[in-house]
């Protein structure tokens, strides 16, 4: 368009100049007739003027040609820049393409697409909130522990469960508070020096004479006859063994309550519920009419001060202590850490998929999933969260496996919550944890070189399987 306009402009200028020259020449001819004396001088002038006119013409034409050349150069340059940009982006896409393909293969091979854990978690949360409300109303005049709002913990609630959708167990901590007229005192268990540390919860009676309801009986200042006559039993007489809170008695009490109260909660219209055998927790199987089912496990717990560290009624695989022994649990702090990471990380962060992939790989290998989870938690504080984008999944999986390898080689993997200076402020830990020396989760391997060698060989096989055999 610009070129056409310029050509038209050149033509118009040429035309104008030729018309001007014609007029000038005709003037020249009439003047030739007027006298020969001045003729030569005038003709020289006219010729000079014509030459000037021609000079002007060439100057304009030259400028226009220069302009045209400039336009052409600019256009070529812009095209070159565009082309280079396109080819750069194509190259980067081409570079990313094999990696994205690999991620796709990994996702299918290890079934990384996370099932609808969060929507189910919501259902579970609502169900338990309703159940606890019924429980509070029913036992408001009794002296059973006061059940606090549940806290989702474990792989299903953190979003990296390796189980199939129908086998997922939603683990919920139910914190217990002492009822009116009672106090809880946490005592280290003198008979056991284990990891995790164990404690007992001693229940003491407190005076309620000067409380908000002075007409009610006080366990300390009313006689046993008066208490018996009014059928008032303290927590010490119901869910304790000796002066200590008993996890098994609490589980049995709550299971009985759930079975009797189920028809009252609105969810009973949508789900059939079955309480499964469990001696220290309350395990429920919920089934829909469509046949779909899932599991909920309620674990009773006592908070340490106002921190995120709790004592849990749930025994571990390695420990099955007496029912009055409660094990220190970091599950709430871990769940809070993963929530914190998910809030800080960019959208579509791959950290949960990485953990899920590695956990699937480790399943049945004898290597500890908890050690893996600890390694991932450390890496989440060491590698900036912006580096956990989806397209970096393979790099991060590589980092996790190599981190585990280094820990096994050095027989040293530090517990995430002891003496960790990289702990996010959101996680509330008792002062003793912050000041503690780091705790080595691989201490047992340091004392058993054969077990260390075996663990390294297992990891070798898993890495080989991950990279070459899938
Ligand atoms: Zn009293």
Task: Give structural notes.
- With 470 residues, the protein is of the alpha+beta class.
- The radius of gyration is 41 Å and the shape is elongated.
- α1 packs antiparallel against α2, α9 packs across α11 and α10 packs across α11.
- It is built from 14 helices and twelve strands.
- The strands form two sheets. Strands 1, 2, 3, 4, 5, 8, 9, 10, 11 and 12 form a ten-stranded mixed β-sheet that branches. It has a two-stranded antiparallel ribbon with strand order 6-7.
- The protein has three domains: 97 residues; 208 residues, Beta Polymerase, domain 2, CATH 3.30.460.90; 140 residues, Poly(a)-polymerase, middle domain (Orthogonal Bundle).
- Helix content is 52%, strand content 14%.
- Bound molecules: zinc ion (ZN).
Keywords for this structure?
binds zinc ion, 470 residues, alpha+beta, Beta Polymerase, domain 2, ten-stranded mixed β-sheet, Poly(a)-polymerase, middle domain, 14 helices, 14% strand, elongated
At a glance:
This protein has 470 residues and is an alpha+beta fold. Helix content is 52%, strand content 14%.
Topology (elements, then pairings):
Layout: H1 2-34, H2 37-109, H3 117-138, E1 146-147, E2 151-153, H4 154-158, E3 169-177, E4 182-188, E5 198-205, H5 224-229, H6 235-238, E6 240-241, E7 244-245, H7 247-261, E8 271-276, E9 281-288, E10 293-303, E11 310-312, E12 325-329, H8 331-344, H9 351-362, H10 369-382, H11 393-410, H12 431-435, H13 443-446, H14 449-469
Parallel strand pairs: 3-10
Antiparallel strand pairs: 1-3, 2-3, 4-5, 5-12, 6-7, 8-9, 9-10, 10-11, 11-12
Helix pairs in contact: 1-2, 9-10, 9-11, 10-11, 11-14
